[in-house]
Amino acid sequence: MSYTIGFIGAGNMSGAIIGGMIAKGIAPERIIASNRGREKLDALQSKFGIRVAQDNLEAAQADVVVLSVKPQMMKAVCEALKPGLGHNPLLVTVAAGLEVSSYQRWLGDHIALVRCMPNTPSLVGKGASGLYANDNVSAAQRQQVEQLMQSVGITQWVEKESLINAVIAVAGSSPAYCFLIMEAMIEEGVRQGLTHAVAKALTIQALAGAAELAAQSDVEVDELKRRVMSPGGTTEQAIFSLEDGNLREIFSRAMQRCANRADEMAKQMGEQ
């Protein structure tokens, strides 16, 4: 059965999801996006042929409504939408830091809501999204969210809302960790005599290839690592150096700080 999808907010993430859905065969006429500014709407309409509106209430008449505005704006947006949600649509929020309880306070306890934590590789169809559904979300609605977000990558459900903070640490924020690793590798490649262009191309391809190999392999990543480490060889020396530098502890501390900050932000914004 066909359902309609409305996007409140027409930023990069909305554009990525819309593009992914259309690439997967969802008809443009099933999609509507709203935004205060006209420029982003015109760009989406021109590129994808979807319907657009500057009135959020018009987009909110869809069966699935994606809330894709900044967390600081969410309260005002939700309170303005509340009169137009009498048809009880499925709500999907991609805003970080706001808990289900905040949306229920603004829109009512009856709402069916999925918290979605996507990451920026969704912009190129390689996203990883964590999903949490409140008790009002049906099995059919879960499938709708999966179809929505799997258009830009993979999805994983968590059964406790608190685990969304772990999703942020593992997936939401982690592209920045990878970019930092790339930055360090490129800089060292240049120090060892490569041009910046050569070091950058090799670094990006090596990490992209390692990720694809891990995705396609039937063994765990620690075994893949071991297979690269010939005894007494070059890779072994590099790994020994990273382990001696407590790389695992560094990552653990960084990801704990990430999750802790997500929890702090949720409490701060939940007080609005």
Automatic annotation (TrEMBL):
Residue spans crossing the bilayer: none
GO BP terms in the entry: L-proline biosynthetic process
Chief site of localization: cytoplasm
Start and end residues of each Pyrroline-5-carboxylate reductase dimerisation domain: 161-265
Binding site for NADP(+): I8, G9, A10, G11, N12, M13
Keyword annotations of the record: Amino-acid biosynthesis, Cytoplasm, NADP, Oxidoreductase, Proline biosynthesis
Catalytic activity, as annotated: L-proline + NAD(+) = (S)-1-pyrroline-5-carboxylate + NADH + 2 H(+); L-proline + NADP(+) = (S)-1-pyrroline-5-carboxylate + NADPH + 2 H(+)
InterPro entries registered for this protein in UniProt: 6-PGluconate_DH-like_C_sf (IPR008927), NAD(P)-bd_dom_sf (IPR036291), P5C_Rdtase_cat_N (IPR028939), P5CR_dimer (IPR029036), Pyrroline-COOH_reductase (IPR000304)
Domain of life from the UniProt record: Bacteria
GO molecular function: pyrroline-5-carboxylate reductase activity
GO cellular component, one term: cytoplasm
NCBIfam families assigned: proC
Record's function text: Catalyzes the reduction of 1-pyrroline-5-carboxylate (PCA) to L-proline.
PANTHER family (UniProt xref): PYRROLINE-5-CARBOXYLATE REDUCTASE (PTHR11645), PYRROLINE-5-CARBOXYLATE REDUCTASE 3 (PTHR11645:SF0)
Protein name: Pyrroline-5-carboxylate reductase
Organism expressing this protein natively: Simiduia agarivorans (strain DSM 21679 / JCM 13881 / BCRC 17597 / SA1)
